[in-house]
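Aim 2 progress. For 7-carboxy-7-deazaguanine synthase, the working sequence is reproduced below.
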Amino acid sequence: MKVVEKFTSINGEGTRAGELAVFIRFKGCNLRCSYCDTMWANEPECPYKEETPEEILNYVLGTGIHNVTLTGGEPLLQKDIRDLIHLLLQAGLQVEIETNGAVDLAAFCEERPVFTMDYKLPSSGCEDHMITENMELLEKDDTVKFVSGSQEDLLKALELIRTYDLTNRCHVYLSPVFGSIEPVQIVEFMLKHRLNGVRLQIQMHKVIWDPDERGV
Ligand SMILES: C[S@@+](CC[C@H](N)C(=O)[O-])C[C@H]1O[C@@H](n2cnc3c(N)ncnc32)[C@H](O)[C@@H]1O
Ligand SMILES: Nc1nc2[nH]cc(C(=O)O)c2c(=O)[nH]1
Ligand code: SF4
Ligand SMILES: [Mg+2]
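Predicted structure tokens for this construct:
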């Protein structure tokens, strides 16, 4: 598997935000979002270490941390990702996958990790790639995340939340494209549309550390 970084930190995003987590970041992505904060990991020349699922499991176990987040890049594109998910779950770890909404989740629903799935909104430039059928596969411990950079994005998120009754299906987060929309604009939007059951989330690690810092 193509690993570009491994680190321990607090999870800055999702339902386990604030808890310790181990991060495994994989190389390569099938999208190119306008705002991507880890585009470096998607570049063909990005250095990586080839590691087996067993090696990654041993690293995670060695940290003594029980939450593991697989991210990237797009982690579900790694050839051995199912083997890795299996090993991590068997070891009793809490496994979260950060995925971009452009990979069919049906293939990963048998032995189930927790999904934090983005729906890429218009300002990402990647909305055409969204597999909307994934919405139907999300369960109560999963999250759908709308990273929003404009009012147009927020209106699209609202439409999807209503169409798929998302707040009754899973966790729902609105998160600003870091630095490009004021969080208060999202709060005002939530109030205006009475978005009960939806949470605003700001990437905590970018507040704690320099927003461009890697490995945190
Ligand atoms: C770098 S992506 C990797 C996982 C997967 N490719 C995805 O897009 O979900 C991890 C998370 O960071 C979010 N993200 C990336 N750049 C961001 C930015 N500039 N502001 C806010 N969130 C961002 C993505 O939307 C995604 O939820
Ligand atoms: N601290 C921290 N928490 C995170 N949660 C999701 C991340 C990601 O890049 O997918 C991330 C990250 O890069 N750092
Ligand atoms: S899908 Fe994720 S990793 Fe890929 S470009 Fe978009 S934010 Fe970056
Ligand atoms: Mg990140």
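Strands lie at 2-10, 20-26, 49-50, 67-71, 94-99, 114-118, 143-148, 171-176, 198-200. This observation will guide construct design in the next reporting period.
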